[in-house]
Amino acid sequence: MQRTASTLAAGLLVFGWTARAGDWTEFRGPSHQGHSDARHVPLKWSATENVQWRTRIPGKGWSSPVTRGNRIFLTTAVTDGSQVSLRVLALDAASGKIAWETPALDAPAVRHHDKNSHASATPVIEDDRLYTHFGHYGTVCLDLDGKVLWRQTGLAYSPVHGNGGSPAIADDALIFNCDGASDPFIAALDKRTGKVLWKVPRQTTAKRTFSFSTPLVIEVSGRKQVITPGSGVVSALDPKNGREIWRVRYGEGYSVVPRPVFGHGLVFLSSGYERAIIHAIRPDGQGDVTDTHVAWTQERGAPKSPSMLLVGDELYAVADNGVAICVDARTGRIHWQERVGGNYSASPVFAGGRIYMQNETGTGFVLAPGKEFRVLAENPLGERTLASYAVLEGALLIRTEQHLYRIGSGPPPTR
After folding, report:
1. Where are the domains of the chain?
2. What CATH number does the domain located at 8-407 have?
3. Is residue 255 within 8 Å of 279, Cβ to Cβ?
4. Parallel/antiparallel/unpaired status of strands 244-249 and 287-288
5. How far apart are CA 188 and CA 415, in angstroms?
6. Residue 345 to residues 77, 171, 229, 384, 408: CA-CA distances in angstroms?
7. In this predicted structure, what is the pLDDT of residue 413?
8. What is the pTM of this model?
9. Tens-digit pLDDT profile for residues 297-325
């Protein structure tokens, strides 16, 4: 783990980094916040340079890859007439060959938003289990050989634009947001059996209740909190029972996508459409703390889709239109604001001492962290992509509309 000030702050810890070194176990990696301790991550690549392999992925999906050992796992949706087969794939990390493909659920072939799919939620790996989530269609747990261990399809709701948020794990609970067209809620499943542990309503006054965020589990003064943003409000819940600890209101912000980040005793999140605003919140309150625990806000560079990145004392964000900012994490003071070409959906990562950002046309920008703006490399791949990077030792995994790439210098290691 990259033990910087981005993850250690006055006794307030991001909870749950238990993966082996080199594994990328969930959306934004084992730190939950886009950090990797991998070394020798490539600086430059293209569709022909530093491509260790490229594998065509059947169907369509915008989930990001996750890894354990010599396996890479993805979800995808294969359409056949009026039906869609929601599938889980495992690839060999060295060769890129598909090792197994398991049908998880069936779904109707309904149209989604152009930036969504039937398989947009990133899986979570813990121990020898792979938890895959398909929003209102259901959740499926498999072992790492592709055997289905349980299915949960009893949590129905009416989505808008499909599903987007990924699950998070806190102890025995697999937790995810269900923010649909009406009656939004947050739910937790027993990760061992798939049974519902708790289900609590999202208490919001926002007119548009649909959102797509991924919860973040943190620890504050020895107590775990599930930070769960939705339309109009972010709540901190007790993962044991779903009871609310604190909340902050942010008006009519809806379609909230970014996963929160945490450090310096502050939770950082963006409040969604129509007017995205970055909020820095002290998570040590009780009840409605809107007027007492918001440390600062910032509108410039606020993202609607990409999650933010905390490195040392600086918070980085890239807005959907490509305007990137670097601010002082404690105060919100802007160090720089620059346009980084293209539009963005993917969340940035920090690896090998560098910041990696990827736009929607597949061009990856590598930035130097710090108070001065410096682009180290610009790497066009030439394929549309909305998924976020996964990081391996010496390599990046990049999912495009049709392929999964392993980017790295030299041949991939064999195991």
Report:
1. 8-407
2. 2.130.10.10
3. no
4. parallel
5. 37
6. 20, 30, 18, 11, 23
7. 76
8. 0.93
9. 999 999 999 999 999 999 999 999 999 99
